[in-house]
Amino acid sequence: MKYAMLVQDLQFGSTGKGSLVGYLARMMRPDTAIAAWGPNAGHTFVDRFGRVFIHTMLPIAAICDSVRNVLLGPGSVIQWENLIKEVQYMNATLDNPRNFTMIVHPQATVVEQRHLEAERANISIGSTMKGTGAALIEKVRRDPKSPSPLVRDMDKDRWGRIKLRLEQMGVTVEIDEDDYNEAADRSSSAIIEGAQGYSLGIHREFWPYTTSREISPAQIISDCGICIPPLLTTFGTLRTFPIRVANRFNEQNEQVGTSGGWYSDQNELSWEELGLEPEFTTVTKLKRRVFTFSYMQLAGALRLCRPDILFLNFCNYLGTNEEEREQLVGEMVHYIEAEAVMVLGTETACKVGYLGYGPSINDIKVR
């Protein structure tokens, strides 16, 4: 792999990684898209025509017609029906269906019904309950007497049916580690798409109210089963008002699960306080929690992730008119870049290169 762009969320998730990936794919024209996601996180892209793509399995960059190989890494947690539906929707929505080769790493994990049931039995944490954590736990447990959750050990007839359905939609799909490695090695340019956000990493201070793995460029690259590319640009994504997924309530409206706390330099807000329509999570469709911006969070993310370029999204949430908005955006950019200099120790530290003012690719501005 000669060159790669890696997109990493620097907060709790839902900062607009999908929007930036779609923008970069359109501008940079990569030949390879790489991801290692689970069905617990959704990525949304709205193209210049207003068409909406919501992916939990298929990398957003696969929408770009320059992409010839889609690689799903060994850290992936596969939900096959989601993947098939996303390919089907993409090809039905785009003017020209995409024809690419999808290579699934044989050490990737598959979500089965038993994983869904295991997570639904424990809702003390604000989980999306899509089986990702339970599937990974089974992989980590390594019990040779239990059913294997790995792609390589899938029932051959089941795999044959999945392969046929994808190939009928123009996607060549294989499970082969050598082919996976060869495709990664010969790539001229790739987009590597991370999921969720830095503060949800399992090693962060919010444990146990985190996701089931670490969220950093090093972990993303490891989960994708590739070496660090010789030329790598890391894009860190931020939003003006960070969010967390919803707390959980039972039928009596009693809270039975929480998505966790926040940093000491930020406060939890309501959408009513902000004068904004509530946002809902991509996967569970529950109302998101919203917070003020945290520079403590930013500092930790900068130290661990060391991004080269920053994307500040949801700038449209600032101010009540265009003049006030631009003043507030300018001030926030100034403080973000000053924090980068303090943390990274150089005047040439990462800059805010892109600003987002809405859901569409048309709403991204270059600074």
Q: Look at the structure and give the CATH class of the largest domain.
A: Alpha Beta
CATH topology of the largest domain: Adenylosuccinate Synthetase, Chain A, domain 1
Query: Roughly what fraction of the amino acids lie in strands?
Result: 15-25%
Biggest sheet architecture: 10 strands, mixed
Question: What is the architecture of the largest domain at the second tier of CATH?
Answer: 3-Layer(aba) Sandwich
Order of helices and strands: EHEEEEEHEEHHHEHEHEEEEEHEHEHEE
Structural classification: alpha/beta
- Count, helices: 10
Number of domain units: 2
Model description:
This protein has 367 residues and is an alpha/beta fold. It folds into two domains: 186 residues, Adenylosuccinate Synthetase, Chain A, domain 1 (3-Layer(aba) Sandwich), CATH 3.40.440.10; 124 residues, no CATH class. The chain contains ten helices and 19 strands. The chain has a ten-stranded mixed sheet with strand order 9-7-5-2-10-1-11-17-18-19, with helices on both faces. A three-stranded antiparallel sheet has the order 12-16-15. α10 links the parallel β17 and β18. α3 packs across α4. The longest helix has 23 residues. The mean pLDDT is 93.
